[in-house]
């Protein structure tokens, strides 16, 4: 076989390893990279627009902030509701909830899944804090504000951490509802509700621009997608059955396991 033929065979061999369904590890690694790239593209674009102070984005942010602020000043009960929500679903309480889940997973005999939860929450939180410093965007400066917050604005830490926590809890508990359509819908609805309303509460209180919240949502989805894809890739590489995270969670066997000391 000549050199050109050998090169062609090697090229086809690399492609087959990346895209061949029978080689699930190579396929999943490729899909992980592609998925992470596709999710991070809109976040990167949004961050560049914020850094460049793109006038249309600034006008849209100001218009939405003004509308929410006008409504908030005229409806104190709305402000009270949003204030309670933003505190209950803030980064602190959600991190405490994640720690509780980590302890529960360890006791249930799923330490690797517990590590995945920790890595996802910590990596996302640190990335968000770093980006706030790098972008250095100021928060809205409104007349007669209904709430105040410290620190930089982009991306929204509340929106980011709500997305991380909701994604983690969703993918951990999906195995317990995979045979019940209604329960699965309820779990998805709860995850979306926490994510969306927490982000909107920051706009409603006038402490974040809309693009801050959208940035937090997109970054949170990117982090959860990347770490869950890495976890499912590890499962395939270690000989475990393939999992479909959005239908049955990142570790479907979790629902069949028993806590330590429990009876099988």
TrEMBL record:
<feature type="compositionally biased region" description="Basic and acidic residues">
    <location>
        <begin position="245"/>
        <end position="264"/>
    </location>
</feature>
<keyword id="KW-1133">Transmembrane helix</keyword>
<feature type="transmembrane region" description="Helical">
    <location>
        <begin position="186"/>
        <end position="208"/>
    </location>
</feature>
<dbReference type="Pfam" id="PF01569">
    <property type="entry name" value="PAP2"/>
</dbReference>
<protein>
    <submittedName>
        <fullName>Undecaprenyl-diphosphatase</fullName>
    </submittedName>
</protein>
<feature type="transmembrane region" description="Helical">
    <location>
        <begin position="214"/>
        <end position="234"/>
    </location>
</feature>
<feature type="transmembrane region" description="Helical">
    <location>
        <begin position="155"/>
        <end position="174"/>
    </location>
</feature>
<dbReference type="InterPro" id="IPR036938">
    <property type="entry name" value="PAP2/HPO_sf"/>
</dbReference>
<keyword id="KW-0812">Transmembrane</keyword>
<feature type="transmembrane region" description="Helical">
    <location>
        <begin position="25"/>
        <end position="54"/>
    </location>
</feature>
<feature type="transmembrane region" description="Helical">
    <location>
        <begin position="84"/>
        <end position="106"/>
    </location>
</feature>
<feature type="domain" description="Phosphatidic acid phosphatase type 2/haloperoxidase">
    <location>
        <begin position="114"/>
        <end position="228"/>
    </location>
</feature>
<keyword id="KW-0472">Membrane</keyword>
<dbReference type="InterPro" id="IPR000326">
    <property type="entry name" value="PAP2/HPO"/>
</dbReference>
<feature type="region of interest" description="Disordered">
    <location>
        <begin position="236"/>
        <end position="264"/>
    </location>
</feature>
<feature type="transmembrane region" description="Helical">
    <location>
        <begin position="113"/>
        <end position="135"/>
    </location>
</feature>
